[in-house]
Design a protein that fits this description.
The complex is a heterodimer of chains A (161) and B (661). With 161 residues, chain A is α+β, with helices and mostly antiparallel strands. Chain A has three helices and seven strands. In chain B, 55% of the residues are buried. In chain B, helix 1 runs antiparallel to helix 3 and helix 9 crosses helix 12 (272-295). The chains are: A alpha+beta (161), B alpha+beta (661).
Amino acid sequence: MTRKRRRLYFLALSMATLAAAAALVLNAFEDNLVFFYSPTDLVEKDVPTDRRLRLGGLVAEGSIARAADGATVRFVVTDRVHSVTASYRGILPDLFREGQGVVAEGKLRADGSFEATNVLAKHDENYMPKEVADSLKEAGVWQHADPAPDGSGNRGDAGGR
Amino acid sequence: MIVEIGHYALVLALFVALVQGSLPLAGAQTGNTAWMALARPAAIAQFALVAIAFLALVHAYVTSDFSVVNVVRNSHSAKPLLYKISGAWGNHEGSMLLWVLMLAAYGLMVALFGRNLPAGLRARVLAIQALIAVGFLLFLLFTSNPFARAFPAPADGNDLNPLLQDPGLAFHPPFLYLGYVGFSMAFAFAVAALISGRVDPAWARWVRPWTLLAWCALTVGIVLGSWWAYYELGWGGWWFWDPVENASLMPWIAGTALLHSAIVVEKRDALKSWTILLAILAFALSLIGTFLVRSGVLTSVHAFATDPARGLFILFLLVIIIGGALVLYAWRAPALKQGGLFAPVSREGGLVLNNLLLTAGLATVFLGTLYPLLLDAVGGGKISVGAPFFNATFVPLMVPMVAAMGVGPLLAWKRGDLAGALGRLKFAFAATVLVALAVWYVESDGPVLAVLGIGLAAWLFFATLAELAGRIKLFAAPAAESWRRARGLPRATYGMTLAHAGLALVIAGMTGSAWYSENVLTMRVGDTARIAGFELTLETVDETPGPNYDAERARFRARRGGQEVAVLEPERRFYPVQGMPTTEAAIRTTWRADLYAVIGEGDGQGAWTVRLYHNPLVAWMWFGATVMVLGGLVSLSDRRLRVGAPARRRRRPAPAAKAES
């Protein structure tokens, strides 16, 4: 086997692997990208009901209610312009509170309410999900000043995590 | 006073690193031995100074010195001692100091154990280590000083984030950083080799122990983090394909590929420039991991408060270090001498296939992690890429890799015999089919892919054992002969067997946990819930005070078929200083499955939300990962790879060399 032949073999093999990886990625991108929406987007844009999406905003004050089965929680996600009612069955993250930022992942129902399958936990109570902060700024209701550069609040870090 | 000494030591360390990063490098270029010899004492001094700084910070935490801003923000006088100590690195400034300490510790190890390295190589390696240290010391001193004073000093601190007050997470960052920073050694050796233009089997033998050490530490770090997420976040899951998790997985994949390609350089003097590139890549991904976690550009379930200015600094460091190394690579790599020839079907060919698939898998993880950032940066909308994406890309690429892992070690170097190798695996194949059929029979309603996953794990496990059995001629030769052969095998061979078998166990555990069942409901005291054949009765819910929290502790009695099997006591803790609740899951672990209970918030009228999980085979994952790390350590203890020992090895006659892996 000459050096040239060997190089050809491995080039073909690498190309095949790369092509397979690219095909997998493109195929997965088609179905598995989850777009982020604010309540305003959900109300104003034509959002498909069969796709998974993320809804982010503030949990409206006084909106958390438990359904009769006790395990399903309803709450309202708002960007202070529009609001969307969301429901979630299960234990909410420890830092889920009224007035705090939240990101919920799930699907939009035909009646315009949101069924969350996943509510994201935050490890830090001062932390505002970046998308939520941006969309609140867009809606013009951003009122919390950005935390001071020295981060006057409590902090938690897991090092690498 | 001690705090000032720590700060001062850090400044001194910067100057020592500046000297260590310049004179020895110049000395190695011009042949000035006095300058080159400077690297050793400088590395020792640099480590001593950084260690003083680190101990000063730990001291401030242990004594609860609230005149230090960092302590105020992350500690509290009522916190248990373990978390006072771990609080020192449970925050941005302290964790970066730990990073630098690890970096200096690796430099120290080269200085102490690297006596057999050629003087020029050692000087260059230590100088490059020091240059990285300069960047991070500047970063610490200018943007993240852990020793800043608070004035006036408050009476007590803000406490550490309660989620981090956990033994699993106390040791997660040190191991993770030991791994991240360990790849800086491979990086330094790679850059030194590019400067000198010489890559040979001896070079690979020097690089491998450092890579192995880093790989072991990173594996431990990732597993500790995953284990923590499993029991502390209370979601019953152990991996979420979250960006922060991926940030630690990417250097691990690159490091795994590097370990394997370095073998080819060592044994066959081939794949040199590819190995150099992988070494640069592994450290680049470690830096990218640090950047992603520290800069706050990611939205993550694990996201912590972060500061963009610091992110910019790290990005700048990243561009200089990685960009510089890649430019050097583009310039010098073509000059590296080509290595030996080998056929596509050969041990080398198998290792190339491993590298190709690992790198392709790495690319998909990289894309999935960073694509949302890129899209957002160009204004293309906000998206997130979740677990389904990675399951549809990374996993299919790993399937052929694991399948090939069973065969690769049986192929001979240079030119292998595929039919012969497969022939020697017929028993492994038969055992795999039996296991798959048994699993399918027992769990016929389970997901089909899970049967495939278990089959794959069984294949890897039995093929790995068959390879070892073939090596020692088990059952084919008299027992005494097998025993003599078994003792003669180098430890690196046993390391490989353990690591590959460990991965098989991990895969089995990962697959098994796909059969989980979940039950979310509200329960009152006296209620009984069912899950996967177990009956759990909520007996009591009590208030229990902890050292720095109040807890609500539930007591479940678990029965199966009327027989009591366990008492589970999950807690919901409230930390008053941070005003933050945490959940503590109760888990009954057996080798078959975990029974997992979490108690949520009560409704104030005697009912609690309860989440129950039955997760099969999860313990196999933790056990398998331990076996993998054990394999790495056994391999590390191999005489041929012992740090600084390669010179001695060549003098030995080679009864073991025949059976070399």
